[in-house]
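Justification of resources, computational component.

The compute hours requested in this renewal are based largely on the per-chain cost of generating structure records like the one below. Each record pairs the submitted sequence with a full structure-token output. That output is archived, and it is also reused by downstream analysis tasks.
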Amino acid sequence: MFTHTLSQSEVTSVWQAAQKELQSQLTPAVYTTWIAANPLKSVEVDQHGQALATIACSSGFHATNLKKNLYNQIKKSLENQLQKTIELAFVVWEPTKPPKNETGKTAKKNDGLLELASGKSPSPTVDELFSAHTLQATIQDRVKASAKRVGLRSDYTFKNFAVSSTNEMAHAAATAVSNNPGTAYNPLFLYGGVGVGKTHLMHAIGYNILQQNPELRIIYCTGEEFMNEIVTAIRQKTALDFKKKFRNANVLLIDDVQFIAGKETAQEEFFHTFNALIKQSSQIVLTSDRPPHEINVEDRLRSRFEAGLMIDIQQPTFELRTAILLIKAQANNLDLPMELAQFIASKVDSARRIEGIVKQLRSEVELKQREITPELIQLIMRSDTMPQRKMLRVKPQDVIKTVANHFRIKQSTIKGQRRVKEIVTARHAAMYLLRKELGMPLEEVGKWFSGRDHTSVIHAVEKIEREILENSMTQQDISALKMSLAALSKS
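The structure output for this chain reads:
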């Protein structure tokens, strides 16, 4: 039976001292991921003077690994501070639910951090509460504005990232990096197939960093966009501006870095940018569809990729796919029953396809006022798995010719390697139409454009899909092209 509980200030003091001792014993990466990220929640003492120390863990994965790998070191360090025999307990704690302090008052939340209210402090007035709420809203508005400027998706956060055995290490490392950028795991290199969550984690890292410090200079781009900026800088003789932009970043996030494979100029510039950022302790996060040793880059650059932490994210399990479905359905205000989520999860193999299905489902519910039924799910699944039933009867070369005529660009130029903005837009439109209107496999589409790989096609399709929603000119271009192809299909 416990007869005494340490006050919150005592717990904080003990943990800070223990952390200092543990920091001297562990590597920076281990300390940041497992100790700094998981606070001491409480210390209770029984009538015999023995204590129970409870560590608040951000996930079950953290709790399991702390107990398995660091139990004795944490126990010894806390015993040194308390001068008592202790046992440890590890609990998964939801930080969005403020803990109670020793007076029973709820902790105050300020800018994402929890501060325990002092028992001597007066209760806040209505005006104070309103001001605090307004300040918090203002901060969140600034974060969202910064995220939008950087190009980060505010719906790709750690909160709505489903964790399982296939991605738990990547999630833990990404969380650690976002809490202490430039300290541990630099660079962080995440790789895996399409739809395993690499991009989601990258956006979550950037968004979490912005929540803690909206003023940090964060750059997010794809490998292809990085190359395009280099080409533009050379053509417009603005290389110094390019270098200043990238080398002054506090955080650099590059998605699909494999795009710089075989591009000597891009590799040269990235090598020097990489070195400059590491030297000034800026954080670098890279994603790829393959590990560094399979990317066709110079040895000196490959060694840089491998110098940090590399994590292979596997395809999501059935349970994880089900969880992703439920999370995304909830985010879209859809009441998706468990049995239907499980049915969908049994038919799809990637998070990216899941997202597309949820978007279709939302469209049916919102625009057509349909109820979510097994029949509706099956209808959507049939359209998702058998896109060829509505495909146009047009040859690939006719699609490219139609796009070339529309944008007034030579067919050979669209299929080539030039990266001028107007040409890239036309090339992406052609890839989008081949994929969506003809139902061609990703690899087949890529072959028509100088042998580009499937990730290039995915990027092109997603880029056009975003542009259709955000840019009226792109929407008009694609609509006009679809009409031209439909007419051609009937002739």
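Residues 96-137 have pLDDT under 50 and may be disordered. Residues 390-490 form a domain with the Chromosomal Replication Initiator Protein Dnaa; Chain: A; fold (CATH 1.10.1750.10).
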